[in-house]
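Risk register update: the risk that structure generation would not scale has been downgraded. Supporting records follow, first protein first.
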Amino acid sequence: MPDCARRIVIKAISGIYRISGLWHTWTMSSLGKHLPVLAVVAAVLVILAGAITPACGQAGAREGQSPQDCESDTTAIVTDTVPSVAATAAETQAEPEPGFWGSLFIWKFFWFLVLIVIGVILLLTRKINRWVRFALMAVAFVLFGLDHFFPLHPSPMCGITKLFMFKFTWGEFFPVFTALFVAMIVPSLIGRKLFCGWVCPLGALQELINKIPFKPRVKQFNFTAFNSIRMALLAMFVLTFFAVKDHIAYLAESAEADIGSRIWVAFSAYSVYDPVNFFELLHWQIGTLFFIMFAVLIIASLVLYRPFCYAICPIGAITWLLEKIAPGRVRVDLRTCDDCGICVEKSPCPTIAKLKDPNTKAAPDCTSCGECIGACPTDSIRFTFTR
C-alpha cells in the first residue's frame, strides 16, 4: 500500500475512534456492541481508499511500479476479443506484461480481501443485519461495478470464460485471467461463496434491487430447475470449444486459408455465455440492448433473489460445487432450533429453509449473507469453520 494512502487511512480510523468514544472503551465486549457501526465505517473507508488510491499511484499502482504499468494490468493488457489481445501485446512489447504474481497483487484484489474479511468478522460475531448488509453491498457495487474506482475488465465472467477460451485457442493461460480466477476461487474454498456473496458487483446489484419492497416475490423457487440450466450452460460452454473449433477449421480448409492465422483463431473463440452475459451491463455502454437487459435484470431481481447467479452464472455453478468442501459455512443447530420460521421469513434467499431440513441433499446456493443468522432468536444459526 502506498505510504500516503496508509497514513490517510490510519488517521481516518484514529479520528473516527475518538469521535465515536470508542478510543477509551476498546475491549472485546465493546467491539461486539459497536461492530455494526464499525462495519459501516469500514465500508466508508473502503470507498475513501478507492478514491485515495489513484491519487497515490494512479488507479492501483503497486509499490515500485509506475502508474502506466498499473493501468496496463487492468485495461491495456487483455480485452474481451482475441484480436485486441494480439494488438495490445504488439503495442506493449517495450513493456513486458506482468506475470501471475504481478497481476494478483493489485489494489483491486486487495479490496476484494478487505470486503471478505469484514464479511467473515460480521458473520462470526453474528453482528449482521439487513442494513449493514445493504451498506456493504452498496460498497461492493460502487467499488467494482461502476467502472470508476476499479475497472471491471476483466470481469468475473471473463475470469472463468476467457481464461479457458484463450487456453484452447492460444494455448496458454493469460496471467491477468489466472489471477482473477484465483482471487475468486480461493475465498470460495475457505468459506461458502465468500466472493459471490461479499464482492461480486453484479451479485451486489441484484441483491440491492431485491431489497426494494415488491410483490409478488418468489423465495422458494424450484432450485433444481434453475441449477440444471446453469450446469447445462457450463457443460455447453466447454463442449462448444471443440465443436466450434472443428467447424471453423473446416471453413478455413474450404476457403484454403491458414487455420492458425489470427482471424480464424478469433472466430473460434465462441462462448455460449456471450448472449446472456449480464456483466456487460457494468461496462455502462448505454444503448437499446443495455436498456433491454437492464430491464430484464431489474424485473427478475425484484421477483427472485440473485436470478442470474442461480440460473446462468458459471462462477455460481463452480462455487456451488465448492460449497461441499468449504469449511466456513452457515450451520443450523437442530437441537436448539424451535422451528419458529423467523429465519426463513427474514432471509432473502431460499437456502435457510433447506439447511434446516436434515433430509436435504442439494441445498440452493448459500451466499453467506448472514441475514438468517441475525434473525434467529435462539442463536441456533451460526457461521463457523468447524461443526
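Supporting record for the second protein:
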Amino acid sequence: MPILSEFMRIQAPSLFILKKYSQPSVIILKNFHLNIKIYYLCSHKFENRCRKTGARDCKIPYTGNFTTYRELRSTAFTGFDLKKENRYMKLSQFHFDLPLNLIAQYPAKKREDARMMVVHRQTGQIENRYFRDILEYFDDKDVFVVNNTKVFPARMYGRKEKTGAKIEVFLLRELNKPNRLWDVIVDPARKIRVGNKLYFGENEELVAEVIDNTTSRGRTIKFLWEGDEDSFRAQLQALGETPLPKYIKRKPEEEDKERYQTVYAKYEGAVAAPTAGLHFSRELIKRLEIKGIRFAEITLHTGLGTFRPIEVEDLSKHKMDAEYYRIDEQACKIVNKAKETGHRICAIGTTTMRALESSFTAQKLLKPSEGWTNMFIHPPYDFSIADAMVTNFHLPKTSLLIMTSAFAGYELTMEAYKKAIKDKYRFFSYGDALLIL
C-alpha cells in the first residue's frame, strides 16, 4: 500500500493528479492547518468532500481504481509523485446560464465606479467592492502591467458594385501598407467574390477591390486610394465605426469612441478593446502612482479571435488565432525588478497575461520580444510572471473564462461567477471587474 509522506512544494491553488493505484492507498498529511478539498473522479463526475483538520497527522482513505484530484486553498502542500493532468478539463465544464440582461450595453458613468469582485485564491474569500478600491490591495513598488494597444474603427459598411447590396467589412489587420492590402471579414460572404469592387461612403469616397479568398468569410482587399497615408487613414476614421462586439445590441454612439478605449492607449492595431483596462481613469492612475505603484506597458493587438467560439470539447485541441505583441526592455526592467524584490505583479487583462506568458526566461523573468502569439491558456497551467490579475466577467465557454479559471482555479472561478450572477454583476466588455489575488 503506497504511503504519500514526502514533502514537495507546489503553488496553490492548482489541480494535481495522483498515480492510479490498483489497490487502496492512504494519503498522510502532516503538520498543516488548512482546508482540503478531495475530489474522487469516477465516470467524469466529481464528488466534493470537504474536510477540515488541524491535526498533526490526518489519514484520508482512498479506495477504488479511479483517480484522485485535490485543490488546495491556503498554502503549499506536501506530496509524492504528483503529476499535472488536463485531459479531464472539457469545454462543457465552462458552461453556465447567463441572463441576457446582465450583459452590459453601456459602460458605468465613471470608469472607476464599476463594481469589482475581489477573489482571494489562498483563502477562497470573495468580496464585493468598487474598482476605485483597487488602491487598497496594492502597495509601494508593486507593478501593474497594462496593454497599450489602441482600437481603430474597424467596422465599415460598403456597397457591392452593380447590385448595390450592403456589405459589412470588418478590418482585421493591414497586410501591406504601401499597397494598402488588408485582411478582412465580409458579411454576407456568399455575395463577395474575387474581382468584386466595394464602394464606401455616400459619395463613394473610398473604393476597394477583392483580390483573394482566405477563409469562408475572410477576404484580402486592396484599397484603391491615390492620396498619401495620412489622408487614407483619415478616410478610414471617417467611414469606420467603433467595433463594438455583437453582444452589445445597439449602434455605436459618439461616446463609444472614448469609452471603448483605454486612457493609456497608444499604438493602433486592435479590433477589440483590452476591456480590463477600461476601468482605469487618469485620476485613478495618478492616485496609484502617488501610492508608489509602477506601470509597465506592453502591446498586444487584440483580434477577433478573442470572440471566436471554441468548437471542440477537448480544450487541448483548440487553436487560437495569432495576435501581434511587443514587450520592450523598459517593461522588462520594471517587472523583473519587482519580481526580484518580492513585490506583486498584476496583469491588467487576459491580453496582457497572454503576452507575459509568451516571453519569459528559464528563471521566470520577463524578456523583451516581438512577434505573434497563439497561446491558449487553460487549466492546469503554471503562470510565470504575474501573481494577480484584473479581468472582466466573461461569457460561458470562452477562452477568456477558461484562462481566468486557469489562474484562479476552476472551482473558485465558477463559485465567483455564480455569486456574480446572483449579485447582478454586469458582464462582458462594458461590464464590471474581477480582481484575482
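The longest helix spans residues 410-422. On this basis the risk owner (M.S.) recommends closing the item.
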